Amino acid sequence: MRILVVCGAGASSTFVAQRVRHAAHAEGLEYSAFAGTEQSLPIDLDAADVVLVGPHLLHALERIERDAAARGTTVVLLPPDIFGDRDGTRTLALVRAAIGSPGGPLPAADAAPPPQD
Fold first, then answer.
1. Is 37 among the domain residues?
2. Segment 31-54, tens digit of pLDDT
3. Is 109 among the domain residues?
4. In angstroms, rounded to a whole number, what is the distance separating the alpha carbons of residues 2 and 49?
5. What is the largest distance, in Å, between two alpha-carbon atoms of the chain?
6. How far apart, in whole angstroms, are the C-alpha atoms of residue 98 and residue 96?
7. How far apart (Å, rounded) are the C-alpha atoms in residues 103 and 90?
8. Domain of residue 10, CATH code
9. What is the spatial distance between Cα 77 and Cα 55, in angstroms, rounded to a whole number?
10. pLDDT at 103 exceeding the cut of 60
11. Positive or negative torsion for Cα 7, 33, 68, 46
12. Would you give the DSSP letter of residue 25?
């Protein structure tokens, strides 16, 4: 699984890519993750199975989804608080949920706990 993390200039995406890569390897998954920018996306998209889009690129999401769909690539818009995911596990859960893999998304930090029976 090849994960492309896209942001405006590549700085924050580098941290997210590194963290999700470490989280995947800790779970024994052979995922790679690399950072890209909005400008490098047309080239980088060919090497990705999943594209994680920084929340500040919401304005470009429709175009990114259209370009990715032509290549069969899954697109995930990252939540605004994703940069606080210090160990990459929440980001990995978003990827796994998007591709239909076990270990779906973790609840948001401010989400209410599920009701108890």
1. yes
2. 999 999 988 888 999 999 999 999
3. no
4. 5
5. 51
6. 5
7. 10
8. 3.40.50.2300
9. 6
10. no
11. positive
12. H
One-letter identity of residue 17: A
What range does the domain containing 25 cover?
Answer: 2-98
CB distance 70 to 2 below 8 Å = no
Residues with Cβ within 8 Å of 34's Cβ and at least 6 positions away in sequence, in order, are: 2, 3, 4, 5, 17, 44, 47
Q: Classify residue 105: in a domain, yes or no.
A: no
Helix (H/G/I), strand (E/B), else coil: 5: strand
Structure tokens at 7: 């942001």
Q: What is the DSSP string of 26-72?
A: HTT---EEEEEETTTHHHHGGG-SEEEE-GGGGGGHHHHHHHHHTTT
Quick count: other Cβ atoms within 10 Å of Cβ 77? 17
Contact between 44 and 68 (Cβ < 8 Å): no
The count of domains in the chain is 1
Task: Please give the model's pTM, rounded to 2 decimal places.
Answer: 0.82
- Is residue 22 a part of any domain in this protein? yes
